[in-house]
Amino acid sequence: MAALGYAGVRKDYGDVTALRDLELEVGEGELLALVGPSGSGKSTALRLAAGLEDVSAGSISIGGRDVTRLPPAKRNVSMVFESYALFPHLSAAENIGFGLRARGLPRRELSGRVLEAATLTGCERLLERKPHQLSGGERQRVALARALARRPDVFLLDEPLSNLDAQLRVDTRAELKRLHQRLGATMVYVTHDQVEALTLGDRVAVLHEGTLQQLDAPDAVYRRPVNRFVARFIGSPSMNLLATEAEGELLHAGPFDIPRPRGLRARRLEAGIRPEHVELAGDGAGTPARVEVVERAGSETLVYLVADGVELVARASPDVRLTVGATMHVGVAARNVYLFDAETGETLASLE
Ligand SMILES: Nc1ncnc2c1ncn2[C@@H]1O[C@H](COP(=O)(O)OP(=O)(O)OP(=O)(O)O)[C@@H](O)[C@H]1O
Ligand SMILES: [Mg+2]
């Protein structure tokens, strides 16, 4: 039984279709990361599950029960927004315990649950403060604590960490993952950050312009993207994308020559190569490429090159000595090349 299910869900705002034919089942105890660029329909999907908006078509179920027509209060879901929605006149503790007080929980149990949720999110020292006395990141953690304290069937988290600084964000993310494992709670976590989606999600759902592109394990989304959009969206820097030209048994893709797979003869193809798969050598094999920009970022170095008039980005070890203007040689192993149908964007061949 799915904890949360979307069946043929569509949402129109006037003539804008925010979500199209969404089929998605989130398993009991699963943490699903919902990722996509701005405007792809992520918040819409959450708001429909929470009952804050009505579907235009299709149905939504929670714990096997059709909730499509139920008001938010009857769905037992907890939503955390990017914009916290805390009550300004209540302290952090009162905010965290708000849903519980409304349910008539005894005082002792209420304060226990508030303290537990506050400790889990690291805001136990902020309990007496009002929202205006908290930073953006602190408010976000109070909002998260409020959702945790309610112990709903499903957590709907809409970019709940977006206001935290980089370090706190990574820490809170790890904490959330541990929390999820411990509580066995069902969570849908919305983010536009693909790294966050891959590290956090048991599975990752990729949305683009209101349409679900792929629903898979993080590793599968990365290694076996179903189309050019997913291939380019997941991974940073984005996969290099090259037009190809067929000649006999070979495909020319910028500076690379790749064996031409049988069966794809009639199609116009694009080749995709991840930055980590661009092989760099000082001399010898490969096509000469001019180093344009070198970005050193601690554990890795990104190298921007131009070869045969084509721009490429390569990920190199920080030990590699590179100077702007130098000539390197680039190559790629055929097994590391993705091929896309240039018209439809569909992945036709990939490394597995
Ligand atoms: N109330 C509304 N009225 C009209 N259009 C809306 C409304 N809410 C959302 N939309 C449109 O629906 C589409 C999806 O919006 P949504 O908020 O779900 O995107 P998102 O993926 O959450 O983006 P972001 O990452 O920017 O938060 C967008 O094109 C948006 O402009
Ligand atoms: Mg949004």
Question: Could you characterize what this model shows?
Answer:
The protein is an alpha+beta fold. The protein has helices spanning 42-50, 92-96, 98-102, 107-120, 136-150, 166-183, 194-200, 218-223, 228-233; strands spanning 2-13, 16-27, 31-35, 57-62, 65-66, 77-80, 154-158, 186-191, 203-208, 211-216, 240-247, 250-253, 256-259, 269-273, 279-281, 287-297, 300-307, 310-316, 327-331, 338-341, 347-349. The strands form four sheets. A six-stranded mixed beta sheet has the order 6-7-8-3-9-10, sandwiched between helices. Strands 13-12-11-14-20-21 form a six-stranded antiparallel beta sheet. A five-stranded antiparallel beta sheet has the order 15-19-16-17-18, with no helix packed on it. The chain is globular. The two termini are 32 Å apart. The mean pLDDT is 91. Bound molecules: adenosine-5'-triphosphate and magnesium ion. Residues 13, 16, 18, 36, 38-44, 192 line the site of adenosine-5'-triphosphate.
Number of helices: 9
Q: How would a textbook summarize the main sheet?
A: 6 strands, mixed
- Let me know the average pLDDT: 91
* Proportion of residues in β-strands: 35-45%
Oligomeric description of these chains: single chain
Derived structural class: alpha+beta
Fill in the CATH topology of the largest domain: Rossmann fold
CATH superfamily heading of the largest domain: P-loop containing nucleotide triphosphate hydrolases
* Ligand set: adenosine-5'-triphosphate, magnesium ion
CATH secondary-structure class of the largest domain: Alpha Beta
Q: What is the number of independent domains?
A: 2
Identify low-pLDDT runs: none
**Number of β-strand runs:** 21
CATH architecture of the largest domain: 3-Layer(aba) Sandwich
Order of helices and strands: EEEHEEEHHHHEHEHEEHHEEEEEEEEEEE
- Please give the order of strands in the largest beta sheet: 6-7-8-3-9-10
Helix content: 10-25%
